[in-house]
């Protein structure tokens, strides 16, 4: 029986090695994690498809960082399909991960000159992030902005200038709103702190 804990440790090791710039070693570790998770998912897909999808997403990142775009694309395609199946049954839980994988898929497709597919993946990611950002803006609004920022170049690659401008404007509006909200929060915090200081001063005078 394959050890799920060992597979998870390999994935964590890969992340650590990658953060240290040791991309070749990171790739070896995540490839082994994928192989183990694939065997586990083969026997128990309900239990381990999620872990396999996560490892495949990381594998795609490692391959891309080493310039192996075709292999990276194959890995992220598989991750998307697994996460799509998971999201079909439990969208609340898995739509965020599906959106992230679609965003990465769009980047890889664009790098390999597949503009139509890249645009379709990017648009699907945006549509998944919209309700997430509406329900939990503190968590997902920045992801929505990043997804929108990917659209203009993809639209322009296909000669769709009006759509490109619309995506830019929406992203800018969200950025401006977020910056304004952050400024308001900072001002409110400063006022509260000032009020607290005044209260402390009054207390000491009393």
From TrEMBL:
Question: Where is the sequence biased in composition, kind Acidic residues?
Answer: 165-188
InterPro entries to which the protein is assigned, alphabetical? Apc5_dom, TPR-like_helical_dom_sf
TM stretches of this protein: none
Which residue intervals define the domain Anaphase-promoting complex subunit in the entry? 9-39
Comp. bias (Low complexity): 189-206
Where is the stretch described as Disordered? 165-206
An example Pfam family from this entry, by short name, is ANAPC5
Name this polypeptide is given: Anaphase-promoting complex subunit 5 domain-containing protein
Q: Which organism is it from?
A: Botryobasidium botryosum (strain FD-172 SS1)
């Amino acid at each position: 029986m394959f050890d799920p804990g060992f597979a998870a440790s390999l994935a964590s090791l890969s992340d650590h090695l990658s953060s240290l710039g040791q991309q070749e070693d990171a790739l070896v570790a995540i490839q082994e994690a994928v192989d183990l998770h694939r065997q586990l998912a083969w026997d128990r897909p309900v239990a381990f498809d999620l872990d396999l999808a996560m490892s495949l997403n990381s594998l795609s990142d490692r391959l891309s960082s080493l310039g192996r775009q075709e292999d990276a694309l194959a890995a992220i395609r598989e991750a998307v399909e697994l996460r799509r199946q998971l999201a079909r049954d439990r969208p609340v839980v898995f739509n965020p991960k599906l959106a992230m994988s679609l965003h990465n898929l769009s980047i890889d497709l664009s790098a390999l000159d597949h503009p139509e597919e890249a645009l379709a993946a990017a648009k699907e990611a945006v549509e998944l992030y919209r309700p997430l950002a509406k329900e939990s803006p503190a968590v997902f609004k920045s992801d929505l902005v990043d997804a929108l920022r990917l659209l203009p170049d993809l639209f322009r690659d296909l000669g769709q200038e009006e759509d490109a401008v619309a995506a830019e404007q929406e992203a800018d509006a969200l950025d401006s709103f977020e910056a304004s909200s952050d400024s308001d929060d900072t001002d409110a915090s400063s006022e509260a702190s000032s009020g607290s200081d005044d209260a402390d001063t009054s207390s000491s005078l009393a």
